[in-house]
Amino acid sequence: MTKQRQHQAAQEQDFSDVDRAALLAELACVLPQHALLSAPEELKAYECDALSAYRCMPLAVVLAENEPQVIAVLQTCHRLGVPVVARGAGTGLSGGALPHPHGVLLSLAKMKKILHLDPVARIAVVQPGVRNLAISEAAAAHGLYYAPDPSSQIACSIGGNVAENAGGLHCLKYGLTVHNVLRARIVTIGGEIIELGNHALDAAGLDLLALAIGSEGLLAVVTEVSVKLTPKPELAQLILASFRTVETAADAVAAIIAAGIIPAGLEMMDKQATAAVEPYVHAGYDLEAEAILLCESDGTAEEVAEEIGAMRAVLDRCGASSLRVSTSEAERLKFWAGRKAAFPAVGRISPDYYCMDGTIPKKRLAEMLKAIAAMEKKYQLRCANVFHAGDGNLHPLIMYDAAIAGELQRTEAFGAEILELSVRLGGTITGEHGVGYEKIGAMCVQFSADELELFHRLKAAFDPQGLLNPGKAVPTLHRCAELGGMHVHHGALPFPELERF
Amino acid sequence: MDDRTQQWIERIRSAAASGQALRWRGGGSKDFYGQALAGEILDTRGHCGIIAYEPSELVITARSGTSLKEIEAALAAAGQMLGFEPPHFGKESNNATLGGCIAAGLSGPRRASAGAVRDFVLGLRLIDGVGRMLNFGGQVMKNVAGFDVSRLMAGSLGTLGLFLDISLKVLPKPRSELSLRFEMPQHKAIETLNRWAGKPLPISASCWVADELVVRLSGARAAVDAARQQLGGETLDAEAGAACWMAWREQQTDFFAGELPLWRLSVPSVAPPLDLHGEQLIEWGGSLRWLSSGAAAESIRNAAAQAGGHATLFRASEDLKQEAGVFHPLPHHMLALQRRIKHCFDPHGLFNPGRMYL
């Protein structure tokens, strides 16, 4: 059963001819028995990632233990024309690791060795299944840490972080995954090993490392990652500021940046979010405030004192109704605890919630919040808002009850309207969670047919048969036409060559 | 402000039809960099102007032909700067442009602490090799929609597309800056720089040459003062320090005035002193080693590769560039992949043929 396929921009390929029995037989030849799962009860655990609204059973799950096994699986699937979806810890929020119904789910979670940690070079070489926080824990003895800290850092894996270009609470100052990864060793679907980047500060040729980071498992599978370690700041301190209106809070965000300060973290929560959080974690938030800001400074003691003074002055000038500066590490962590618990707190007061991830220019924050308030009325659903305000990344949490007929559909429409507005305000549909399966329709709003076609060509440059994570991240032109994204790009209708129905 | 988009689309379409190679060029300040120049020149300087700049967004968007000077002046007026501190390598007659800066992908002294050109690219519009206008990334800090094509453009030497405009993240200027000088042999400088880099010190640049190490401290006044106390050395006043960093960035010191070929070796910061004939100047905390040397290309490339990096023949005669190749040879799989990527953007091979490997 050898199958030659070809990736296409226009239409999704039909993989329904994959022969499961033949696939399992071939995989069994190249893998130890315990690395290959095929019983339905074993597959069940892998049917979704952290976006559990979407579920799908794969044909098989491979728990790869080393690079040769990864190569063997990819070569087998390549030969048989079988889709492969790579998965790290499964904490992704966009359905990027949602299995393919006719494909193999390739878990890298067992490849979790820290291969080498060089405190002098400030580099850790790790396998893809290593947890984000485990790197910082291993580096802590040397006064170093791995800076990107997505909220799932206890559980999420570095391989998944690379696939999604994960962000976090501190990326305004310390950057995203793309700024903190020096090298990735990848395996293509054909089984070739390619080294992207190195332990120097640049590599020869086109910067394919930048292209691979955030490519959502569409281009290759990562088997080894070298990350940059950062000296741990001596001290961190947090200001908690309350505002009577969201507009004044948003203005304060802009004013801090305009004053030449790059806070280590700059977060905003609206009243609905603090109301959800406070009874749950008792962070000490001001429940009268329409919005609160959390502004963190880190560095040497002298530096922090100077920066906290400067931030206080700006916040006062911008009309903060109250201002508290953490006086101990315990208090700083308590202030953060509320922000970090926002998602579960909302999960406590609502049976279900749907987290959005648009990014907009900071100056449009207040406008976006007003629009979301209007949408709450329109869709008859509540929405709590938490933002990475410093970089304009919004996480509106739309609360719904999937058990009530029509609520999920209204929620999806609510979410889609937020994303479309994000694009219209000069932003993007996803700041850090990725497109995955979830936002593939919204991609039609943000990109033209020509741009999507280019993405498909890039995909085909790595994966000509279109076997890696098909149906994710980059929509086919046909899907966009069908969705009727109706994105009028430069005055022309998109996809004029395609039928609409 | 001037917009040439439409004109360029037509020019590229007709070039695609006739197979005419094109070489887009700003001030020409980096014509020396890369393999042979080929193709009809498309001057980008007529497509210029800052399109949007709001200091509180930390983002600037400008047309590719805008001079770097104009951009840096606009940023400085708002107390901001380009974090990657790009070298201009131009004079009045051939001012560096933003498009050229991104295409060359060269970063300056602040690279090791603040990041490289590609780290600051947020979005980019280009015309591809068949005359399509494409827009990637955007004007916001965090954006993971679609492949990160805009960062790929940094250092692509004009081989993938004709840039229309570019959005960059910018940084506030440090409140305080000063430089410290130390007498130190090379091996000790490399060891010291790596040790310091492992501590939370506000070091924003380093340069070692002729047994003298200079480091720059940037940041909050209190942090810079505390670091000065801690590190010791001889303090250069702000003006003298700034002049030094400018001269190194622009390669205007004696070291760069030699007649011998200039090599750029990019290696891990901890790589021990490279045993190569010639003079060296070391930047980026040990990661960037400039070598002025007449040694055989192969020995230099081997030394860089053994250290885990690569060597570029940065400035040399056309003959030597031809003979030794400017860029470090790529492994077979990688070269094939890079060529396929080039083909995605420029299927007829119109843009800057031969300037890189592509």
Strands of the widest sheet of chain A, in order across it, are 15-12-14-13-17-18-16
Number of helices of chain B: 12
User: Low-confidence segments of chain A, ≥5 residues, pLDDT <50?
Assistant: 485-501
Helix tally of chain A equals 18
Strand content of chain B: 15-25%
Taking the sheet with the most strands of chain A, its summary is: 7 strands, antiparallel
**Rg value of chain B:** 21 Å
Form type of chain A:
globular
Q: How far is it from the N-terminal to the C-terminal residue of chain B, by CA?
A: 33 Å
Low-confidence regions of chain B = none
* Order of SSEs of chain B: HEEEEHEHHHEEHEEEHEEHEHEEEHEHH
The share of residues in helices of chain A is 25-40%
For the largest interface, the chains and their residue counts are:
A-B, 94 and 90 residues
- Spatial strand arrangement across the major sheet of chain B: 13-10-12-11-15-16-14-17
Layout of strands and helices, then pairs:
The complex is a heterodimer of chains A (501) and B (358).
Chain A: H1 20-30, E1 36-37, H2 40-43, E2 60-63, H3 67-80, E3 84-87, E4 104-107, E5 114-118, E6 123-126, H4 132-139, E7 144-145, H5 158-164, H6 171-174, H7 177-180, E8 181-187, E9 193-197, H8 208-212, E10 221-228, E11 230-231, E12 235-243, H9 246-258, E13 265-270, H10 271-281, E14 291-299, H11 301-317, E15 322-325, H12 329-340, H13 342-349, E16 352-355, H14 365-379, E17 382-388, E18 393-400, H15 407-424, H16 443-446, H17 449-462, H18 477-483
Parallel strand pairs in A: 2-4, 3-4
Antiparallel strand pairs in A: 1-2, 5-6, 6-10, 7-11, 8-9, 8-10, 12-14, 12-15, 13-14, 13-17, 16-18, 17-18
Helix pairs in contact in A: 1-3, 9-14, 10-12, 10-13, 14-15
Chain B: H1 5-18, E1 22-25, E2 40-43, E3 50-54, E4 59-63, H2 68-77, E5 80-81, H3 98-104, H4 111-114, H5 117-120, E6 121-127, E7 133-137, H6 149-152, E8 162-169, E9 171-172, E10 176-183, H7 186-197, E11 203-209, E12 212-219, H8 221-231, E13 234-236, H9 238-249, E14 262-266, E15 279-283, E16 288-292, H10 297-306, E17 310-315, H11 318-324, H12 332-345
Parallel strand pairs in B: 1-2
Antiparallel strand pairs in B: 3-4, 4-8, 5-9, 6-7, 6-8, 10-12, 10-13, 11-12, 11-15, 14-16, 14-17, 15-16
